[in-house]
Amino acid sequence: xxxxxxxxxxxxxxxxxxxxLSCSPISGHRSVSWYQxxxxxxxxFLFEYFSETQRNKxxxxxxxxxxxxxxxxxxxxxxxLELGDSALYxxxxxxxPGLNNEQFFGPGxxxxxx
Amino acid sequence: xxxxEQNPLFLSMQEGKNYTIYCNYSTTSDRLYWYRQDPGKSLExxxxxxxxxxxxxxxxxxxxxxxxARLSTLHITAAVHDLSATYFCAVDRTGNQFYFGTxxxxxxxx
Lengths: 114, 110
Known about the structure:
The structure holds 2 protein chains of 2 kinds. By secondary structure, chain A is mainly beta. Helix content of chain A is 0%, strand content 53%. Chain A has strands at residues 5-7, 10-13, 19-24, 31-38, 42-50, 53-57, 64-68, 74-78, 87-94, 104-105, 109-113. By secondary structure, chain B is an all-beta fold. In chain B, a hairpin with a 4-residue loop joins strand 7 (61-66) and strand 8 (71-76). The chains are: A mainly beta, B mainly beta. Chains A and B meet through strand 4, strand 5, strand 9 and strand 10 of A and strand 5, strand 9 and strand 10 of B.
């Protein structure tokens, strides 16, 4: 069974640009969560989608947005990039938002903002 | 906001020794997860603890959960070099919104 896939794996952008990251969950998984990992702030929750609806959102500015498609694939978008947005962005999938579901993480997209 | 604290942040231990990593969290939760991360890699699931008193073991690692004390431990027995990695605990209160600890960077020295 294929794991969570994320594209692209690496990305270099400049300040002010926007970026879109993609995540394909494990087959059959319908919930997708996004996390940002930085050396200073650690792992922080961005948002979670289930059935094309955003269920939860972390404490990030509106420049960070996402969506989920009918096939459960998800994208996140960051507009007007800032240097501080440089991070590893991790996507995780689970069967559904039930409380006992284990999340499986993808390899991540490493974003560098210059 | 739920806060998750791990200690120690850094751990250097000799092969063959035992040690425990602690994970404290600030509000009630019955679900706690442990992950391992190797440098430049993603998170690998180690343990899922879903009730008070839960104990799980895999190889040289054993995790436990005390929901009353809001404490989970990850115990390492007879460490080997392959266990060198960063270990994270994560607490989930609402379903798929994980609050991660700061991570414990473990180095096992031959």
